[in-house]
Amino acid sequence: xxxxxxxxxxxxxxxxxxxxxxxxxxxxxxxxxxxxxxxxxxxxxxxxxxxxxxxxxxxxxxxxxxxxxxxxxxxxxxxxxxxxxxxxxxxxxxxxxxxxxxxxxxxxxxxxxxxxxxxxxxxxxxxxxxxxxxxxxxxxxxxxxxxxxxxxxxxxxxxxxxxxxxxxxxxxxxxxxxxxxxxxxxxxxxxxxxxxxxxxxxxxxxxxxxxxxxxxxxxxxxxxxxxxxxxxxxxxxxxxxxxxxxxxxxxxxxxxxxxxxxxxxxxxxxxxxxxxxxxxxxxxx
Length: 285
Prior knowledge:
Radius of gyration: 23 Å
Order of helices and strands: HHHHHHHHHHH
Helix content: 55-70%
Oligomer: single chain
Largest sheet: none
């Protein structure tokens, strides 16, 4: 054996290529970190979870009329609709403001240097919103049942309907919040940029208007373009009797259309996020 052959034979084998974690694994890890950071900010937690129940308490106490030929009160309708508003608050508003802040203070820029794929970052945010939305849901259900006679579903099919509406509404509103976070020029402008359209959406989506048919036709058509309207209608279908469907814009619960619109926003919202997502704030460009 020559000296060269002996050297090659004694050389250590090349190390196996290091496997990079998948986008899903990175996203779940990022989501866990976001949850820890969120719940450490106690004042943000309190005000985030308190706003929808406070609005429900105000509206439910002011509007107490009973619908004709039913035993359903306006406060019960508000309680069902406000679940969609709570999801919008923990997803659209929180992500829109939170991501604009992370982009402005350089957090996203540092994550980009790790590097972290955009999909993994978005998965982490959806995980954050799913958990916080479940917590908000629990608070709203307690308030609705305890103070406004909201009746929980008693059949498996209604709970199944509730589950898929909750999941699709949370994902679609989250993706829409990520998209609007790109509109804010800075962290200071983010609350104004995000809150104004959200409040308008709550009105034209039937969260604050009972019944929704009181809205002008043009506003009904605009509201129907966004997921919040269909989420609110879906939750009303779960918590209210079937006789209340006549008070919807289409005169029915329209579960098929709800699934179609929310599903389309999940797909379209993801595409919009990937197309518009940027790591750097405008002051770094």
